[in-house]
Amino acid sequence: MIDFSFTDEQTLLRQNTRDxxxxxxxxxxxxxxxDAKFPAEFIRKMGEMGYMGVPIPEExxxxxxxxxxYCILLEELGRVDASVSTILGAHCSLGSTPLLYFGxxxxxxxxxxxxxxxxxxxxxxxxxxxxxxxxxSLQTTAVxxxxxxxxxxxxxxxxxxxxxxVYLVFAATDRSLGAFGGITAFIVERKFDGLKLGTEEEKxxxxxxxxxxxxxxNVRVPRENxxxxxxxxxxxxxxxxxxxxxxxxxxxxxxxxxxxxxxxEHAKRRVQFGKPxxxxxxxxxxxxDMGIRTRMLKFFLYNVATRAEKMGTNPAGWSKADRxxxxxxAAILKTFASESASFCVDESLQIHGGTGFIKSSxxxxxxRDARISxxxxxxxxxxxxxxxxxxxKRGWE
Length: 397
Ligand SMILES: Cc1cc2nc3c(=O)[nH]c(=O)nc-3n(C[C@H](O)[C@H](O)[C@H](O)COP(=O)(O)OP(=O)(O)OC[C@H]3O[C@@H](n4cnc5c(N)ncnc54)[C@H](O)[C@@H]3O)c2cc1C
Prior knowledge:
Strand order of the largest sheet: 1-4-5-8
Bound molecules: flavin-adenine dinucleotide
Number of strands: 10
CATH architecture of the largest domain: Up-down Bundle
């Protein structure tokens, strides 16, 4: 599966999205970052235009543009504002796509349709104070009580936690069964009694997205809000994160491209020693190293996205080989993409010289925003564990 080209529809989506973001988002991006302000009005507009459900099929309220279309959107967002790509990723990749993969028809109608139409914002609650990389060690519990479950526990770092209408929360239903068997996913509405907001984190980057502590204090959840089967929660979380890493990489690709663009603009403009610094080979070598990574990333990203698209939206029907390949390639992609973006924004900032260190410069914000992609949705150390283990187990092609 090496061949790839964009369809006319995808090219048009990119162009329309770029125009929209340049017109509506770029002018407010610096302010969103400076004030750490959730861009509610802009998110509402994205919803109206169908951007909150780009990969979701039309029958469930989405735009039906698949994973490649979704990556195009995330790539374009990555060029402009990483806060918004984080909000969208948490809502769509993590918070609502699992409903498409694992939900009942009723759950899809009740929760996925409003999410895809941008009428409800979603949040994904896996991490806890004592359970980060080792997510399976989560302490939140869900105890059966008649036709309901009662959830108790503390979740940490929930993106969209402050603004969400719906939370996908993972809790232990039977510790004796371990991760695969003992953890269950629940759909929790904001209005359910006992769900309380804790502290909002102040962050170095992606400051327009909220990152919240959440308390589940005897939250009563009806049994029909179990997502998938009881005990399948960890599998749901891991599958969701595998697929989510693809679009996360798309955001990193957009950031890398923008970093190059800004570096070139500055290097052509800035004259030292009687000529633009762009004419210095040392600067051109930096641009070359950025270009090499970004070009490779683009091809691999859309290759993995196309393969994931072909696998369809019913994980129960995926072959073992396809699933293992997806897990490994999404881990390779996420690691390479996030490190390429960090490299590109760092080199771009260096090309900007002192100007890049000043708060008013776009690359200063991008430098702070890029760092998180090496950490969330599974740190790059954990991705290397996944990749290394797979190579030992299945060998290399
Ligand atoms: C801004 C932000 C948004 C987030 N959004 C969400 C969200 O929406 N939902 C959600 O559930 N979570 C979210 N997270 C949590 C995020 O996924 C975790 O931070 C991440 O998984 C790492 O966990 P940790 O921070 O506890 O680090 P730790 O697990 O404590 O790791 C610390 C360091 O040790 C390394 N390490 C750990 N174990 C090993 C090992 N076995 N071998 C080698 N190295 C290891 C790690 O790679 C890392 O470098 C968010 C976090 C942030 C900061």
